[in-house]
Amino acid sequence: MKAMILGAGIGSRLDPLTRSLPKPIVPVVGKPVMGHLIDLLRQHGFSEIMVNVQYLGHKIEQEIGDGSAYGVRVHYSREEKLWGDAGGVKRVESFFRDGEDDTFLVIGGDDLTDTDIGA
Fold first, then answer.
1. Which of 1, 17, 64, 79 sits a CA distance of 20 to 30 A from 24?
2. Closest by alpha carbon to 56, among 23, 15, 30, 14?
3. Global model pTM greater than 0.85
4. In this predicted model, what pLDDT tens digit does every residue of 11-26 receive, in sequence order?
5. 53-102, pLDDT tens digit by residue?
6. Spatial separation of the C-alpha atoms in residues 113 and 103, rounded to whole Å
7. What are phi and psi of 6, to 5 degrees?
8. Interhelix angle for 57-64 vs 33-43, to 10°?
């Protein structure tokens, strides 16, 4: 299954922390928030993840890489300008249509949760 993590936002509510660090890789209990999300997605059967990046996106890509350290495959959609949540998903529509199952999940890059996605 495929998922998308929305990681392009500026993170102004976490200022000044996010002046030099994008909010998806702010550490929580020694791991980036996005790392916790990727672990959750993997536990629920997601193996391919698209991440849209813009503000300090290179730092997200450096931290998360290709996803192999998390046991998944991570792809990046680099946005020169912010497209908003729906715009970011629309830009990678073909990613979700490429495969047998077109069901997918979208989650915010700063959503720290333990939601039972399977339910």
1. 1
2. 23
3. yes
4. 888 888 889 999 999 9
5. 999 999 999 999 999 999 999 999 999 988 877 899 999 999 998 777 77
6. 21
7. -80, 110
8. 50
